[in-house]
Write a structure and sequence with these properties.
single chain; 8 strands; alpha+beta; eight-stranded mixed β-sheet; 141 residues
Length: 141
């Protein structure tokens, strides 16, 4: 099967632009598997981990939402944010997770639970991607 071009773009930069063999993306209704020659598609992305396969290599990118469009000639991801594993500050991501859990558990009336849950999902995706390569594939939270 011939590869397909994948472009992952944020408002700040081009995060990834290469020919790939497969993509697994976190859609809002579940994980999406995309192979070359996939039917055209446009969908919303959720916060999570993108798994990219190129030959025998796998790459992981944490995204915090956005859009995914599959065209006949390429896959385009317009992400709210996207970080490769080596760009993620693990201690900062763990601190963001701790703060989000604390906000959710506080039951304070001034806490926006949806925002706190979204922050928790973003931080967990970042931690999962960062730990995947730094601890030999371990991804437990």
């Amino acid at each position: 099967m011939s590869p397909v071009r994948l472009e992952i773009v944020t408002a700040e930069k081009m995060v990834f632009s290469e020919e790939i063999d497969a993509l697994v993306a976190p859609g809002v209704e579940g994980a999406l598997g995309i192979l070359p020659n996939h039917v055209p598609l446009m969908t919303l992305l959720d916060a999570g981990e993108m798994k990219i396969r190129k030959g025998h290599e796998e790459f992981y990118i944490a995204v915090s939402g956005g859009f995914l469009e599959v065209r006949p000639d390429k896959i385009i991801v317009l992400a709210d944010s996207a970080e490769r594993d080596d760009e993620i500050d693990l201690s900062r991501a763990e601190e963001a997770r701790r703060r989000a859990v604390e906000r959710i558990g506080s039951h304070a009336t001034n806490v926006d639970i949806r925002r706190a849950e979204a922050a928790l999902h973003r931080s967990m995706a970042r931690i999962k991607v960062a730990r995947r390569t730094r601890r030999g594939g371990e991804t437990q939270l």
